[in-house]
Model the fold of this input.
Amino acid sequence: MNTSTDRIERQILLKAPRSRVWHALADAESFGDWFGLALKGKRFVAGEYTQGNITYPGFEHLVFEALVESLKPEHYFAFRWHPYAIDPNTDYSKEPTTLVEFTLEETRDGTLLRVVESGFDQIPVSRRDEAYRMNSGGWEEQMKNIETYVATH
Done:
């Protein structure tokens, strides 16, 4: 078990070909479908921001915004965002972001998906612990969501 306060690490073996897992990650509309975001008509492009409303009940008034860092087809996808930025009255734009990295590895039984979110130690102390805790639990749920998504798409 990782005890770092700076990074969250999760992995899951998905019983799906790497191309299907890659599509679920790198195609913004598909990503939105399993992640809980309204990203219809959006694309992930390295060096550009992608925005869309959160579709998770109770959070629909919030906007997901991520800066796509890298897309290496069928291997690596990374973006930066403001973790657990849920207070609509707070300007998070001056805060550091965390880096979310997805790495895909083909295995005999499917695709191993690793997710690492790092940079929490740079988040303001006033919200660092809550952001870490909420995103840690969030990644647990998102691993289940992508597993369901790739099994049915």
The two ends are 31 Å apart (CA to CA). The helical segments are 18-26, 28-35, 125-152.
